[in-house]
Each structure stands twice: as C-alpha cells, then as structure tokens.
Design a protein that fits this description.
Chain lengths: 457, 309
Amino acid sequence: MPSTAGRAGTAVTTVSSRPRHARDALPAARHVVRATTTPAKLRLLLIGLVSLCLIWGAVAAWVVSQRASGANDVASRSETLSLDGQQIYRALSDADATAASAFLSAGLSAGIEPINGPLRYRADIAEAAAHLESATAAAGHSAAAADLRTLSADLPVYTGEVQTARADNRLGLPLGAAYLQEASKLMRGTLLPAARNISAEANVRLAGASGRATGLPLALILLVAAVIVGFVLYRAQQWLFRRTQRRLNAGLVLASVAGLVSLLWLGIALGVARADLLQARTHGSTPVAALAQADIAALQARADESLTLIDAQGNDTFQQDLVGVQHRLGPGPGTLLTDAVIAARGSPAAGPARAAAATATTWYGVHRTVRSLDNNGKHKEAILLVTGHGPGNSSTLFTRLDDSLHSAIAADQIVFQRHAAAGSNAFIGLEVGVIVLALIMAAGCARGLATRLAEYR
Amino acid sequence: MRPPARLWLPSVLLAVVAATAWAVPGSAAVATRAYLFPPAAARATPPCDATASSLRPTGPPRVTPGSFMAKIRHRGYLIAGVSQSTYPFGFFNPLNGNTEGFDIDMVRAVAKAIFGNPKIEFKAISDAQRIPELQSGAVDIVAHTMTINCKRLQDVDFSSVYFHAGAQVLVLKNSRVKSLADLGGKKVCATTLSDSLGYIKAATPHPIPVPVTNFTDCLVLLQQGDVAAISTDNNILAGLKAQDPWTKIVGRVFSSEPYGLAMSKMHPDFVRFVNAVLQQMRTDGQWAADYRHWVGTPVPAPPPAKYKA
C-alpha cells in the first residue's frame, strides 16, 4: 500500500512542482512544502473540503434568505400596501360622490337628506381611516410614508368641510354648496392623488420584491457553487480511491449524499416558488392592478357625473373631466377596461371583467341622456336619473360596474394570495435545512479524511 | 474763415425743417394707427348715461307675431342665465331644490308675461360668462346682479334699472378694518372679471385681489381666515352677512351699481317688452312686494325708468 501511495504521490508532486519554488521563498508556507507527503496532503484536503462545505452552506443559505424575503415581501407587505392604497382611494372617492349626490337629492326630497347618504359616507370615511392605519403600519419608511402623512393631515379637514356644508344646507344657506365644492377640490386635488401614489409606490416595491424572489442571477450563483463543490468532492474521492485502493470512503460518500440532497431540495423549492410567484403575478397582481386602475377611473367618472349637476359655476369642467375619464376607461383598444380584460384572461376575474366592460358602455348611454335632459332645462329629471335607484338609472349602472370590478379584483386577489403563499411556503425550513446539510457534509469530509489520516499513525 | 450770419441762420432753419419733415410722418403714422386701432384695454368707452340707456316700451307687454317673444313662446320656455349662489338675488335653495331670489322674480315676471305662467330654464352661469352666454345665444336673458355700464352697453343691451346697489366691504366682526383703504397689502376677495375685482385692483394702498368663482367661495375663504375682506355690491354683502352673522359691512358706499336685465343686442323688441314688464311691476306693486320679500323693509320707491329712445 505505501508503495502505491508513493507512486501516486510522485504524480501529484509533479503537478505541484512548479509553484514550489515560489513557496520556498515564504517561510510561512513551510508546512505546505511538507504537503508532499501523503498525510500532509490528506490534512490539507481535510481543511479544504471542510471549508468548501461550510462556504457552500453559507452561499446557499444566503441565496435562500434573499429569495425567501422577496417572496415574503410579495406575499405580505407590498401587496398589503398596494391594496390599502386602492381601498383608501375607493373609500374616499365614494365618500366624495356620496356627499355630492346626497346634496343633489336633498332638494328633491323636500329638505330631507336621504338617510342612506350620510350612513354610506360615514362608512366610507371609517373604511378609509382603517386602511390608512394599516397602510401606515405596512409602509415603514418607504416612499409612500409622505403620501400617508398627507392623507392623515387632510382627511379631517375634508370631513370638517363636508360637515360644514351639511350644516349650512340644513339652514337653507347657499354657502353649503360652496363648502361642498371646496371639500371636493381638496379631495380631488390632494387626497385622491396621494392615495393613488401609495398604490403606485407599493406596486413598484412589489415588482422589486417579485424580481428578488424569482430572478435568475441568484439561482446562477447557487448553480456555480454547486458545480464547484460537486467537482471538488468528486475529484477528492477519485484521488483517495486511487491512493487507497478502497472503493468507498464512508465519510465522503455521506458528504456527497448530503450535498445531493441539499441540491435537490434547493432546486425543487426554488423552482416551485418561482412558478408560484410567477403565477401570482400573471393571474394575480397584474390583473388586480389593471382592474384597480379601471375601478379608480370609474369612481372618478361617477363623482364627475354628480358634480356636473351641482356645479353652480356654470362652467363645464366636470363634464370635460368626465369625457376625458370615459376615454381612458373605455372599453376600446388601449383603454383601462380593455387592458384589464386582457390582463384577467385565464384568471377567475375574466368573467366579471368582461361584464364590467359591457356595463360601462350602457352607463355612458344613460349619461348622455342625463346631459341632454340637463341641457334642455330638465334639471330635476336629470338629477333623478343620476341619483335614483331604478334599473335604468345611472347610479344603478355605476353600482353594477363597480361591483363587477370589485368582485373581479377580489377573485384575482385570492389567486394572488394563494400562489404567493404557496411560493413563500416553499422556502419553509430550507434555510435551516441547507445549513444543517452543509454541516453534515463538512462533518462527513472531516470524518472520512480523519479515518484515512489515522492509518498513517 | 467764418461764414456770414445771414448764411448760417437759413441753413439751421433748413436743417430743422428737414429733420421735422423726416420725423413727423413717422410719429404721425403711429398716432393715426393708435387712433384707428386702439388696444382693447385702452379703448376709450364713449361716455353714456348708464341709467338712461334702454329702449322705451311701446305700451303694455304684448307678444307680437314674428317677435323674439313669439319665438320663445314657440320654444316653450324662457332660458335665463342666473347665479345659483348669490343669496338673496339668485340662489339654489337646498331645502326645496328651487332657484330663487329677487333677480329670479324679475325673470319670472318676464316669463309670466310671455306664457301666462313662469316656464323657465335656469342656466347657472358665473360672472365671467354673462356676456359670452348672451352673445352666443345660449341664454335669452341674464338676471345676475349685473351692473349697467358704458363698457358692457357696447356688447349687450340692458333693461331699465330694477335695483340700485353700491360697493362696500365685508369683514369679520372683530376686524378693525373700516374701509378698502385699510386693506393695503391684505387679501381681498371678489369674483373673477367682476367690477368689484377691478375696484380692489385700483384701490390705494394696493390690496391683494383674490379672484374666485362665486361670492359664497369668498365667504368660505373669509370664514377659514384665508382672506381679510370681501368687497362687492352691498346687497350681495348683505346676503353673505345673512349667512354668517359673525360678519359686518363697513365703510361708505364707494360706487354706483345700477342693475339691469341683460339681453342680446339682436333683439330690441325683447328689450322693449322686458321694460314694459318692469314698468308694470313698478306700478302694480309687484316690484315692492318682491323687494320686501327678498331685501326687506323699508321698501324704497322703485328706480325710475329712464330711456334713451
């Protein structure tokens, strides 16, 4: 056995003979020079393999933690914030439209505000406040924090102005209409843009987190590390096999098996997570964002419709805005509704999204009737068509449109949450797992080579 | 060698004449152009008597065939441009959803004279829209606390005077402001393109004019502490004061604002008709009743009807 070892040793020595001159110059490297003997080489291999296993464990754990935190951010924080932003926008916009139409119909019901008006308005404000709180918790120090501060500061100002408007209306003072318009100006000029920003910021963050959780560079780093470790382990066993004429070294085999297990686990978990997160994006967050955009535009158009009729200024700002919003909303090529229908294709939201697009067209038709009534001196009839609750009324059609969009959003929200949670769950135990397996690998290498070394004493 | 004096003098005279001949045609051309095409802002409004600028009615109000009144009757309703926010002259009453006020009652009387009952479409317009809406034919008549003045008389026709107002200042009750003169450097509110905004801009020391759409918007700003005062016709200020008892009207009346109903220059028959309606209201006590209802007592004598022709 020693003679065979000597022969193989000579071969190896020849390979490493060139750098020896350089190493001789360094007194600190004297023990490396001694590595020409088999025990020394074994000792060196032991140190190298153990370090390599530990490095592998560290790299794998780091990659897993990056991916897992991205997936977690997708599943919980960014999406929460984006959803909160949308809900704040919905609630505030509905509050504005409700306040406006309550004012409109007050005059028609002989001084009594319809009772569902104030109730709905109050529910809207409460909902906005609740989402404002959860959004503030989710936002942390992100870019959305400034917008959330604006909302917190100006929401009380808005409600104050609306209450003043209502009190003035009760007294029969025309001043009420001025306060209502002032409130609406604050809502449209400051509050709603801030709510829109929150969703936009959160969507940017969501895209970042999603990229971190599914991007390929990290997986590539992992693959390169695995190839290096696998190659070194294989060569080490080959060398040991030749040197010792033994087929298997139990320790190194254990290390190899542990390495393979960790690689398989990583591959499956990362693959599954990536597939799930991509699903969550294609059939979840992307259609949800498109549908939310459409819903925001629909809400704006509805508020415009009411404000057009209480506009005591006689200019047609709101009507012009409404026409612009209708063009953006669609349906039609490149419009928000059509984009949402396309984005929702193949997801549970597809049906409601198509229904929303169809309702929008009917609603526009009724709005044209409203305008022609109002333009021909039939102001009261126009108001009734906007605020009434009959089947062909503008408010009924808008509610149907809004409900369709809302249920479409909710349906794809569920898809998103299911896939995002599955994607996030794929990482459970993985980080600890790869660390433990790397330690097993290191222990296996140490044990296997230590047994060989012991044979030289 | 110095030239003789009698040669020197004519040459100077010649030079002066030449220079004048060269310079004068240029300046004369400028002057001519300025005369023919005066810039709009500087266009001098020919002097007029605003209170005696309307057309004399031909007897009691009658809808003659082929007249503008017959056209309105055929349409089925009168289209009136009014304010929805100027209490108590033209405003939207939130308690019953109706458009009401002193101006509105004037229009009702006109519609009643055409149809026998007031069939009116009220179109809410801002101060700035009053003349454009009449000129485009979008409304038949404007009843909108509108002052008759010589400049506006070039664009539209007015009825005889139906109310006489004058500009003052409205401030919060605890304010020390006594008149527009105390408001130099402070924010003063009025509606865009109104006479009132012009008075604020012209006042010395200069206040900071804050233009808004309606006078109720001014009151919102005053209540929220964003402006120091509102300046406009005292009847409008009285309407604002009625909506906020914590305000007061201060200072002397510093302008004369005779109100007229405005109509397009295309329909002199309609102007005469409206004047006949107003004349009837002056004599049968309707004017006094409307005044008592909206403005209050004591009820003065109605502004006398004076006509240019």
